[in-house]
Design goal:
With 313 residues, the protein is mostly helical. It has a domain of 121 residues: Receptor-associated Protein (Up-down Bundle), CATH 1.20.81. 84% of the residues lie in helices and 0% in strands. It contains 14 helices and no strands.
C-alpha cells in the first residue's frame, strides 16, 4: 500500500485535494446562501413577491437558454421541434418558455446517440450475449429515457399543485368574503403560497398578469387549467367561469369546491392505503418468501438428501 502511494505523483495528489476542497467550499457556500435567502424571505415576505414578479416579467429573449434555442432551431429539422404532445407535457412540467421544445428535442437526439455509444464502450467484449443486451438496453434508454423523465417531472409537478389547491381555495374564500376583488385575492394567495407551493403561486400570478394585460378573465382561467393539466383546477375554472357569467356568489362556489377537493384528496389517500397491501404481495413473493423457504425447508432438505444417500449405499 505504501509502495502504491509512493508511485502516485505529488501533483496528482495535490490536484485531488484541491478539487475536494473546492467542491466542499461550493457546497458550503450554496447551503449558507440558501439558508440566508430563506431567512430573508421569512423576515421580509415581500421579497418573494418581487422575485415572483421578476420571474414572470423576465425577457426570454435575453436568457442564455433562448440564445441556445435559437442556435439549435436553425440547425435542427422542423419536424422534431413542432411536437404538440411534448409541448404540452413540457408546459405541465413547468418548462413553459419558448426555448423548452427546442432544447428538449436536442436532448432527445443527443441521448439517442450518446447512451448507446456509452453502452457499447462499457459492455464486455468477450461476451457477445452481454454486448447485445447492453446495446439493446442502451438504445431503449436513449430513446425512451428523456420522455420518461419528462413524464415523471410533469406528474410530480401536477401532484404538488393538486395538493395545494384546497389550501389556496380556503385563502381565496377568506379574501373574497373580506371584500377583496377576485384579481387582488388571487395575487394575494400567490404571494402567501410562494414559499409553500411555488408552482401553484406562479400559475396564479400568471392569471393576474394576463388579466392585467387585457386578456378576458375566462380565457386566463382556462389557460391556468391548460398549463397545469390538473383535473381539479379544470373543474374549478369551469365553476368560476359559470359563476361569473350567471352573477352568483363566487365565495360560495370556492367554498364548495374546496370541500369537494379536500374530500377527493382524502379519498385518494384512502385508496392508496388500500392498494398498499396488494402492492406488497409482489415484493414479498419475490424476495421474502424464497428466503423463508430456504431457512425453513433447507435443513430438512439437507437431512433428507443425506439419508437418501446413506440408503443408496
Amino acid at each position: 500500500m505504501n509502495q502504491l502511494l509512493a508511485e502516485i505523483p505529488a501533483s496528482l495528489i495535490l490536484l485531488i485535494v484541491t478539487l475536494v476542497v473546492a467542491v466542499c467550499t461550493v457546497v458550503y457556500v450554496a447551503i449558507a446562501e440558501r439558508q440566508r435567502r430563506d431567512t430573508l424571505q421569512r423576515v421580509t415576505p415581500d421579497m418573494e413577491a418581487a422575485r415572483l414578479a421578476e420571474r414572470l416579467l423576465l425577457n426570454d429573449d435575453a436568457s442564455a437558454s433562448s440564445r441556445l434555442a435559437s442556435w439549435l432551431r436553425e440547425r435542427m429539422p422542423e419536424g422534431l421541434i413542432t411536437d404538440e404532445a411534448n409541448g404540452s407535457k413540457l408546459v405541465h412540467a413547468g418548462f413553459d418558455g419558448s426555448a423548452a421544445p427546442v432544447i428538449f428535442s436536442a436532448i432527445r437526439i443527443v441521448s439517442a446517440l450518446l447512451i448507446p455509444v456509452l453502452a457499447f464502450v462499457a459492455a464486455p467484449r468477450d461476451n457477445p450475449t452481454w454486448l447485445a443486451v447492453s446495446l439493446v438496453m442502451g438504445v431503449v434508454a436513449g430513446i425512451a429515457g428523456p420522455q420518461a423523465v419528462l413524464d415523471r417531472l410533469a406528474t410530480n409537478r401536477q401532484d404538488r399543485i393538486r395538493l395545494g389547491v384546497p389550501d389556496a381555495l380556503d385563502l381565496l374564500v377568506v379574501c373574497v368574503e373580506a371584500g377583496v376583488s377576485l384579481d387582488a385575492a388571487i395575487i394575494r394567495v400567490a404571494r402567501d403560497l410562494s414559499n409553500v407551493r411555488p408552482e401553484l403561486a406562479i400559475e396564479f400570478a400568471q392569471v393576474v398578469r394576463r388579466v392585467n394585460a387585457g386578456m378576458p378573465r375566462d380565457r386566463a382561467l382556462q389557460g391556468l387549467a391548460a398549463r397545469t393539466g390538473v383535473d381539479e383546477l379544470r373543474t374549478l375554472v369551469s365553476s368560476m367561469i359559470q359563476t361569473e357569467r350567471l352573477g352568483t356568489s363566487i365565495a360560495r362556489v370556492l367554498r364548495v369546491n374546496a370541500e369537494s377537493l379536500r374530500t377527493r384528496r382524502r379519498q385518494r389517500a384512502e385508496k392508496r392505503a388500500a392498494e398498499a397491501a396488494l402492492k406488497m404481495i409482489f415484493p414479498l413473493a419475490l424476495f421474502l418468501l424464497p428466503a423463508l423457504l430456504a431457512v425453513i425447508v433447507g435443513p430438512a432438505a439437507i437431512t433428507v438428501v443425506q439419508q437418501l444417500g446413506e440408503l443408496a449405499k
